[in-house]
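Our working data are protein records whose layout never changes between entries. An example says more than a description, so a record of this kind follows.
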Amino acid sequence: MRWHDFPWDDKIDTTFAFGEGLSFATDVPTLEIQRNGRSTQLLNYLLFELTFALPQEPDWQFVGRLHHRSGVYGLFDGVGSGSNVYSAGIRR
């Protein structure tokens, strides 16, 4: 889902996105095991994203995104946590 309408869009064009699904890793992520004691290949996936662009240049966007893998409090193979990855960049 992506929300496009913000009251300040005439000054800085802004969008907010949310995604939900599954995350399958080809190998169990070592980082998740180190931080949480265990993990599994299949976990829940959440995505949150904000974009900002000048109204006169809507094709050039600054993007901030959070990827979140989660065991949903043990729902996925008894895994109680997961991992986060934060990213930022420019998209055209």
Remarks:
- The two ends are 20 Å apart (CA to CA).
- The longest helix spans residues 30-36.
- The chain has a mean pLDDT of 95.
- Residues 71 and 79 are 5 Å apart (CA to CA).
